[in-house]
Structure formats: structure tokens, C-alpha cells
Amino acid sequence: MNTPRSREGNMVRGTIYLIGYFIIFGARRLAVVDGKVRLWGSILFLLLSLMMLIFYIYRFNRESRYFERSDTTLPISDHFGQLVLITTLIFIVRMVINYIQLAQGIGYTSIQTAYHAGDSAGLFWFFIFSEGIIISTLQQFLTTGFFFNYFFRQNTLIKAIMGVIFSALIFALLNFSSIPLIFISELLIGGLLAWSYLSTQSLWVPVLLAIFNGVLTVVLL
């Protein structure tokens, strides 16, 4: 039960981390009411999110000595072309979805609805911090860092493909989108983030890409 080689232990740890994420997500919703940022709600979100982020980082660093690493992993600089491609694809997916929303009226996500209700500078910067940075970072700890090293440890092609698919699905579910087209776009982006992690074996690569995706999402609100 004490190392990431224990399936039962991994399920318990994963459940605890997931509950922590839901707490932060709920705190974010409490901080914004009727399109306005509430002072005490935002303070609560700030304190809880920083505590949870520190907890995630501490646990990941503590457990990483048990994680399996590929012997053929290349330096991140050798993946520059791939990372540029992933960044470009994320940008294209976000722009296409934004265009379809404006042109076809497919509906808005909960964060878009909340922003349009207030549409203020304070709300914009709060979403940049909460959605663009904090929640995006926590999602990558869950969907790539902990997920792959808990449940898809073997370095095989089949495991990698299955891991990317399930990681993308969890990423899409964690964004709570009920609009089919937006859900599909989240699947695509989640798959790209998982691919970047498997290629580089560095958690901070998908984290930075996820922050780019999150900030871009808020900018396009």
C-alpha cells in the first residue's frame, strides 16, 4: 500500500487527489456568484488552491522515485518540433470552437456563462488565475502525472495508446462540458497533453501546455 506499485494504494491515493480537485472546483464556483467575484469566496479559493497545489507537488515529488522511466527518453529540447505542433493544434482547436460558438450558436460552457453575466476586468483576471493556471495545473497532475504512473506503468505501445485515450477522457470529464462538440474538443486537447507527457516524461511540459490552453480559453471568452 505504500508505493505506486500497489494497485489498491494507487486507487486510494487517486481518489483522495480527485476529491481534492472537486473541492477546489467547488470553491471556484463559490467565489463567483451572479457574474461577480466575491471577496471571501476568492480568498477561500486562493488558500485552498495553494494548499492543494503544494500537496500535489509534495506527493508527486515524494512518489516519483518509484515511477518507471523509459531508458530511451530524449531531452526536452529534442521534442521542440513536436511541442510547437501540439501548441499550434491546441490554438487551432480553441479558435475553431470559438468560431463555431459565435457562428452557429452551439451554446456556452459554465465559465462562459458566468463571465458573460459579469464581463468585468476583475472577473477576467480571476478566471485567468483560477481556470487558466490553478485548475489547469491540478488537472495535469491528475490526468498525466499521477494517472500514468499509477495505472499505465508499462512502457509498451498498447499501454501508451490506452493511457492517452483514458487520460483524454478524464481530462474532458474534469472540464464538465455538456456540449458534445466542446466535449470532443476537450478530448482532443487532453490527448495532446497526454502525448506530450509520454514523449518527454516531464510533467511540467503538459502543465505549461495546459496553462496555455486554459489562459487561451479565458482570453477567448
From TrEMBL:
Segments crossing the lipid bilayer: 12-31, 37-58, 79-102, 122-148, 160-183, 203-220
Domain CAAX prenyl protease 2/Lysostaphin resistance protein A-like: residue ranges: 124-212
InterPro entries found in the cross-reference section: Rce1/LyrA-like_dom
Keyword terms of this UniProt record: Hydrolase, Membrane, Protease, Transmembrane, Transmembrane helix
One GO-annotated biological process of the protein: CAAX-box protein maturation
GO MF annotation: an example: endopeptidase activity
Keyword field contains Transmembrane: yes
Domain of life: Bacteria
Homology family: Belongs to the UPF0177 family.
Protein name: CAAX protease family protein
Phylogenetic placement of the source organism: Bacteria, Bacillati, Bacillota, Bacilli, Lactobacillales
